[in-house]
Write a structure and sequence with these properties.
The protein is an alpha/beta fold. It is built from 10 helices and 9 strands.
Amino acid sequence: MKNVRTDLAVETIAPEERELPRGVRFSRRERRGVPVEEVEIRTEEGARTLGKPVGRYITMTLPPLWKGEGESMEAGTELLADYLREMLPREGLVLTLGLGNPGLTADALGPKTAAGILATRHLSQLDTEFFRTLRPSAVLAPGVLGQTGLESAELAAAVTERFRPKAVIVVDALAAGDTARLGTTIQLSDSGIAPGAGAMNRRMELNEATLHAPVFSLGIPTVCEAYVFAASLLGEANLEQERRTEGFLITPKEIDQLSARGAAMLSAGINRALQPHLSPEELAFLTA
């Protein structure tokens, strides 16, 4: 197990170096031309060892998102939609939560993704053939505790108690334990999320126990610890020495493009998964 703070399950193991912890499975494949790594934590023993809840963690690796390469962006969007269609319940309301501070670029991935989601719950109830074909979808960007005085999990629990969604998708910016993962990795999990855990600002968890619905977390690493960056330059042998910078976070200089293009990919993937009968062009028009 790697000794760094990270939100990415794949970074908590080193399958090439040693045997995996008991109750943990790892696989690597390519799908739609995209490298995919999957960590499956099956037991509480494995969860304790890796410091992650029991669940399935899918990691997709793409070229740097800030470059906006059309072919890779499209492949990533389609692959994300594929996985979501496979994992989400086939029918019923899906609530998307965009976590984070919209005023802080490195933390704005969730709110920016929420802004691109096609909300249809109010439309699917209208008595016309087209609107009846839309899957009900709702979206909420709850802000952060310092702005609202309310935990995101508290607001989400109130909404789910009132509207009873069949599933919740939670989008948040993540922290990586390797600088190469910044803006190049998408993680999808069915275990929920503990916002801010990788950045030492852990908040109330959003999972099936707290929201009473299956919770799928989705995110892209936008920050890492400064000591991780220092170790990448000076070598792993200096990792412990560089921990004196613990608590300082760094982000790529292209964070504006990373955040905008990453959010566009995530929202498009969610929309395509929820409204598969609409073309990408139709979805882009409806969310413009």
